[in-house]
Amino acid sequence: MTAWLPDETTLHHGDGPYREDRAADVFAVLREQAGDQTAQVTAAGAAWLAGAAAYPRSALSQWESHPSAPGVLPCGSSFDVVNVPTLFGRRMLEHLWADGPGSGPVATHRGRMLLFASPGTAQRLPSLLDWEEWGGGAASRSAGGSAGGSAGGSAGRDESGRKVPPLLCHGTGDAVTVPPLTCGPNASGPRWVVAPDTRSPWLPGPDVLLWACVRVARSVPSSGPRISIFPPADQGAKVYDVSRRR
Fold first, then answer.
1. Does residue 34 surpass a pLDDT of 50?
2. Looking at residue 225, what is its pLDDT?
């Protein structure tokens, strides 16, 4: 994971004059409590998350006061979120990291996995799934809901019965619950699997996530009946041993 960046004051639009001492406090908390760097938000990652809020300084101030409390951030400007069942999401991550370009930030919440994706993914991914005949024909974007709550689903299967489970895609107009900046080892609730660690994290687009979905679905054994190219055997037919014939 990337190291701490020396400039810790990259905040933009928001609420009044910027107070460097106030922001520095939350960055200090993150430094002190950083453990597993894969699942721990860094100062640069916190700045990126706060940038998705309408008022980044207010978001950082809230995290400073309650660093172990989850937050709610809007989608559509800095990121979209693709919300998948946990097991399917873990298999997607395996393919993305083993055979693909990797992933952006990833979190778990209420038995689902939240994959942070590039803006616009929530609108395009369901269409791509439909085009490839893996989708359910329905737009998979919620209307003003939050992750773990409401959203339309998109699910489909190929001719062999292998399927992509319902995907909840959160984009413009939606909000998602994000895990706390710091999590104890026994903390419940949303948690980071891959925490943001830079101000400009790479985010997968709809084409990358489509590839991962299809790879996972095709790796699952087919639930349909197996078709043999040979005719069924006649159970009443006589069988002769010709191995000893000369």
1. no
2. 55
In whole angstroms, what is the distance from residue 89 CA to residue 27 CA?
A: 30
Residue 125's DSSP bridge partners are none
CA distances from 174 to 18, 87, 110, 122, 236 (A): 28, 24, 18, 10, 65
Beta strands in 158-225 (DSSP E): 163-170, 175-178, 191-194
φ/ψ of 89, rounded to 5, equals -65, -40
pTM attached to this predicted model: 0.70
pLDDT band of residue 236 (cuts 50, 70, 90) is low
Q: Which of 241, 212, 231 is nearest to 95 (CA)?
A: 212
| CA distance linking residue 19 with residue 16, whole number of Å | 9
CA 47 to chain centre: 20
Tell me the angle at which helices 121-131 and 206-219 cross, rounded to the nearest 10 degrees.
Answer: 50
